[in-house]
Amino acid sequence: MKRLLILGILCLSMPFARAGVLEDIVPRPAEAVLLRGSAHVSGLPFKCDPAFSPDVQAAVGSFAARLGYISGRTCPFSAPPGLSEAFAAGKVKGALFLRDSSLGPEAYSIEVGSGSVIVRASGSSGILYSLETLRQMLPAAIYGDKVAEKERWTLPCCIIRDEPRFAWRGMHLDSSRHFWPVEEVKRYLDAMAMYKLNRFHWHLTDDQGWRIEIKAYPLLSQIACWREGTMVGRDFSSNDGIRYGGFYTQDEIREVVAYAARRGITVVPEVDLPGHMLAALSAYPHLGCTGGPYAAWTRWGVSDQVLCAGKESTFEFLEAVLSEVAELFPGEYIHIGGDECPKDEWRKCPDCQAKIRELGLHDDGRFTAEQYLQNYVTRRIQDFLATKGKKIIGWDEILEGEPAPGATVMSWQGTAGAVEASARGFDAILAPVSHCYFDYRQTDDPDADEPLSFNGVVTLERIYSLDPLAGVDPAQAHHILGVQANLWTEYISTPEHLEYMLLPRLLALSEVQWCPAGQRDPERFLRVLREHEFPVLEQAGFNYRKTINQ
Ligand code: TNX
């Protein structure tokens, strides 16, 4: 790396390319060295190794088509047999996408010479990331849809070798508190893909609305997806009186899953249980401790009314729901929530108390019998999902009691949960409220003219400063799968507002997730944001926060 850097500094005086082009790539590549000269890419033929999947061919093909259109000179695309051999024999020129099985699953390399661009990767993720890197090196007009022949369509000669620091680079979206149509979810995925995120955590159920069609329980998308109004602003006693609802059909879910997959993103669905279930109870009241009646909540907060853990019908329900969810989402993980499950009802419920006795659970000074009962629910669901080939993720609270081996903890209350989980031998994902809650305000200036948000602050600088391995025993660091930010939508109801909360914090997140420790540089990042990424976001048509605090 050092050697490459020195070489890069020596070569900084090259003539044509946009100054600082390699510095401007977000997330910053692991290694990037500038060489003398540049390559014209407008009109360049693009050739892809036919051994790559059809999705990869399509991605390279549409990149070439877009570049040709925007730059004003067609970039022909082909996937000729024997491309690697022809390249080795020096018989082919252009932008070549070659398979190199010696590279890691998400790694790629780019070598730009004066008339060629050679990209290497072992699989589809690497190729997709190389395309994002190439886009980042071109004029921002490449993100738009207008012909821009006058721009300088060159790439600087360079060598880039890149791969992510963390395997889990997640972004979450709450579709329960407010419902986001498929088109907006796709834009969200587009933004994630631009910055090489690879896990979309989709929060589909909560007290305020159930958002996924389940064939075995049809009332979920007839009753549980509706609420009778919504509180206004921060006034918990108010109600706007407007019936609010929406859900995704199973076909729409499949559409989103496929759209994400084409962008290298795995969708991780969340069915939050056994708390945060009021909307489901409104449709199937027999699943609660008291039998109801219940209504999907019109205000925010944590409802006391949760699934009854003492009745078998609860498990029948959860197994039926999760069976359909497991079919719809091909990824290896299902998030089962587990957060904020008040135990007041369980304490009073004869069925829950009978279950506690049957299982021999009791308070032991560390945890209450009811906490152990939640632990029992988690383990039962975990075992059930294992029969479907799925692993579970749960919020911090699943650490209360003894989670079964193989559970992954998503640590939201701080970083301590992840530290504890990794020390206890569990995999963990960091999503600490202190750095990663994008429903919080983006500035601590009380006079700033900001839209409504949750009552807390997470600035761009704050997210950028997250040290994911702080406090983690180096011997257990492999248990930290990665980092994620969460975007809860209690106070966010329009796509413009959603994008404003996401951007540009998503870009800071991407560097935390992607860049090697020590590669991050806040000064460079803020400069690049202003000079390069804001024009990119502008061209891509996103709404984003344009002020940078300092
Ligand atoms: C906590 S994070 C919650 C959510 C809220 C969020 C608001 C977590 C597991 N639970 O239900 O929407 O705070 O910031």
Give the CA-CA distance, first to last residue: 31 Å
Count of strand segments: 21
Query: What is the radius of gyration?
Result: 25 Å
| Percent range for β-strand residues | 15-25%
Mean pLDDT: 95
**Can you list the strand order of the major beta sheet?**
8-9-14-15-16-17-18-21
Structural class: alpha/beta
Hetero groups: ligand TNX
Give the biggest sheet: 8 strands, parallel, barrel
The best one-word shape is elongated
Instruction: State the share of residues found in helices, binned by percent.
Output: 25-40%
Describe this protein's structure.
33% of the residues lie in helices and 18% in strands. It has 550 residues and is an alpha/beta fold. It has an 8-stranded parallel beta barrel with strand order 8-9-14-15-16-17-18-21, surrounded by 5 helices. The protein has a 7-stranded mixed sheet with strand order 1-7-5-6-4-2-3. A two-stranded antiparallel sheet has the order 10-11. Helix 8 crosses helix 11. The model is unreliable at 1-17 (pLDDT under 50). Bound molecules: ligand TNX.
